[in-house]
Amino acid sequence: MKTDVHNSLILVSGGARSGKSTFAETLATAMADRRSDLGPVAYIATGQAMDVEFAGRIKAHQQRRSQRFVTCEEPLELESALRRALAAGDIALVECIPTWLGNLYFHLDDEKITPRLEALMAYFSRLRNIPTSNPADMAQITVNQIVTGKQPPLADVARDTRTARKIVIVVTNETGLGIVPAEAASRLYRDELGWLNQQLAVLASAFFFCVAGMARQIK
After folding, report:
1. Residue from 35, 61, 68, 190 carrying the catalytic annotation
2. Is 61 a catalytic residue?
3. What is the pLDDT of residues 61-118, one digit of tens each?
4. Per the domain annotation, does 145 fall within a domain?
5. Distance (Å, rounded) from C-alpha 8 to C-alpha 169?
């Protein structure tokens, strides 16, 4: 009998202090506990201690982290870190996309950022073995599914993660719910992260949104 081998990409989003990181970590350890066939859980941390306050945030994350995680600190080369993690194990948690994007803007010239973003999306596309799609096209597909009653049930998502060979959980931030930033650079960052999130949501096999410590499954 032929075995259905595939990979799963899970997106977890929310605002600041929404509980998204705790939820993603709990999800990763629960999956590892449930499936004995999966290897170590890689924790790819993108944060850099730029000041005392942020260093405290990083330390708090480290202290809370389960011993099931094997931590890899990688502020820039996220695609390479994912490749290494999934070569050594079967579950990788990325914490988080907004910090990684901010690092790119801080360390790289603008013309070098877009190729990094495109390369990461291409990697996730290959991981999921599905073509990258325009978010507007996916929005129309979703509307059609709702109208025709053909939207896949949430049980299908649970089944997907139970049989996936490689699982990547990506944590991101929803930055578009607040006021419009006054500075052009901040508006550019917000917009770029928003587009990145839309592309991740298209490629994801599951998408959770966290509010006040509660996670709601969107996809």
Report:
1. 61
2. yes
3. 777 776 778 889 999 999 999 999 998 889 999 999 999 999 999 999 988 999 999 9
4. yes
5. 8
Sign of CA pseudo-dihedral 61, 67, 68, 72 = positive
Range of the domain at 200: 7-217
Query: How many domains in the chain?
Result: 1
Q: Does a structural domain hold residue 1?
A: no
Strands 206-211 and 214-217: antiparallel
pLDDT value at position 198? Answer: 92
Global pTM reads: 0.82
The predicted structure's pLDDT at residue 154: 44
**In this structure, what CATH number is given to the domain that contains residue 67?**
3.40.50.300
